[in-house]
Design goal:
211 residues; alpha+beta; 60s Ribosomal Protein L30, Chain: A; five-stranded mixed sheet; two-stranded antiparallel sheet; 7 strands
């Protein structure tokens, strides 16, 4: 059975390193007696829903500016502007990663992979998403379905949607009909509508795995 990120279609080799966040369950800082569900706990919720959001500023691509090449869901998109980010700036991967972590009430992407860590400079965001998927499985859950919305004035997303969906399904080891990617413009309103930013929302449903 395929596991998240196991296929060999990644854009480039993905290196691994020790995470900087402890693998302990989430705790409530002000109340140490608050119960926390553990994997296999019969009282754990059968369903969990997570929402992820990412916003990246878009600037001219180097050497004309500080922007990195535009990548969405692991797929490069030809454009003269790209995200200003510490990692590779894949806003879709970032939003999905935070949706998975949020569903588990675990630390978010910025806590797991801080932007002041030089190891994350220009990092392939597939690493972040693969780690979030691993945590879902470790917590005793599986992904039921994923719905995402990319808000980008240009380039148009429609020619790339199938490739992006297929790649997300590969990384998360999901059937294609469990992954959705929608593309919207912002009607030329504010930074997103003026082509100066990209915005992504992601919603994920997790179901508890049968033991």
């Amino acid at each position: 059975m395929q596991t998240p990120g196991s296929a060999s279609q990644a854009r480039r080799p993905v290196h691994r390193y020790d995470l900087r966040v402890a693998e302990s369950p989430p705790t409530t800082e002000n109340n140490a007696s608050t119960p926390v569900h553990t994997p296999g706990d019969p009282d754990a919720p059968n369903l969990r829903i997570g929402h992820g959001y990412a916003l990246h500023r878009l600037e001219p691509i180097a050497p004309a500016g500080p922007g990195r090449p535009l990548i969405l869901g692991g797929i490069p998109l030809a454009h003269d502007r790209g995200p200003v980010a510490h990692s590779d700036g894949d806003a879709l991967y970032h939003a999905v990663t935070d949706a998975l972590l949020g569903a588990l009430t675990q630390p978010d992407i910025g806590q797991l992979f801080p932007n002041d860590d030089p190891r994350n400079d220009a990092e392939d965001s597939e690493i972040f998403l693969t780690e979030a998927a691993r945590r879902v499985a470790a917590a005793g859950y599986q992904i039921a379905n994923l719905d995402t919305t990319v808000i980008l004035e240009r380039p148009k997303l429609s020619p790339h949607k199938d490739a992006i969906r297929t790649n997300l399904a590969r990384v998360l080891a999901l059937p294609l009909d469990c992954v959705n990617v929608k593309g919207k413009t912002h009607e030329r309103v504010d930074a997103v509508g003026e082509g100066r930013a990209i915005e992504v929302h992601a919603v994920v449903l997790l179901t508890r795995r049968a033991i």
